[in-house]
Amino acid sequence: MEEPLVSIITPVFNAEEKIISFLDAVAHQDYPRDCYEIIIVDNGSTDQTREKIASYSGDVTLLQRTDLQNPYAARNKGLLHAQGDLMVLLDVNCTPTTQWLRSGINRLQDPTVDLVGGQVSFTYSEEETVGEWYDSLLFVDMEDLIQRGQSCAGGNLFFKRKVLDKIGSFPEKQRSGMDLYWTKKASNSGFNLVYDARAEVHYPARRLRPLLKKIFRVGTGQPKVWIENDMHPLKLVALIFYQLVPPGTKVLRDKIRRRGKPTMNKSFGRLWLIHYLQQIVLASGWAKGLIHYYRTKS
């Protein structure tokens, strides 16, 4: 049986330190190399990223998108160039396991499946900080995102070309939250999004400060997703204020049980404080995003 042609699309920005190891991991998959193309879209790097890609020995297509600096604009450039029957979005921070591509494509060949979100497993620095632990517990939980909301992050996402043809490309005006918006739009259009743990990538957990910056940035993009999927603005306002209430412990304990390790319970108090802090930061992002949404609508 002939394998389908696959297009793997990755946006990059100032990724000179990781790009070669990333390309090596993508190029050495348990899937015929002549049946998938690797498309890297540089989003205006100022380091040696482009030069390193150009000198790479493997077969890689290098594109550029510099008029707008966000990952969605870069992804759209890659999608326009893609020749595959099946599309894969993969972030440069993600290191795929050797069976990653085969697993995702096999699941996508089920005629009842249109999109597949793969597993994101976190790795830690040598110090293994509490901030890193919290990141690995609460964020990019692809299984939970898909089961609860029929949407997911776009850093490890497989989908059929017909999805793109039907719902169009990613919105480009916001820098965060549009992968959740796009996958939710696909689900609302009748496409089936599923989770597959075997399509696994490894992702470095963030320390506390960059994690909080990421939370705020993602929060600014979420109001557009929710309001355009029929959430009443007053409900979002209520959610913003609700985030200021100190959280309980159940969610965090459940995450440790499901995604963490027993030693994390010894630092539960510090993890809980970070949990509360991220609620406040997230609420601030939602408030900014809500204001921005109506300013741009007027």
TrEMBL record:
SUPFAM superfamilies in alphabetical order: Nucleotide-diphospho-sugar transferases
Entry keyword Transferase: yes
UniProt-listed Pfam families: Glycos_transf_2 (PF00535)
Top enzyme category: transferase
EC code: 2.4.-.-
Keywords: Glycosyltransferase, Transferase
Molecular function terms from GO: glycosyltransferase activity
Secretion signal span: none
Residue intervals of the Glycosyltransferase 2-like domain: 7-167
Coiled coil regions in record: none
Full protein name: Glycosyltransferase
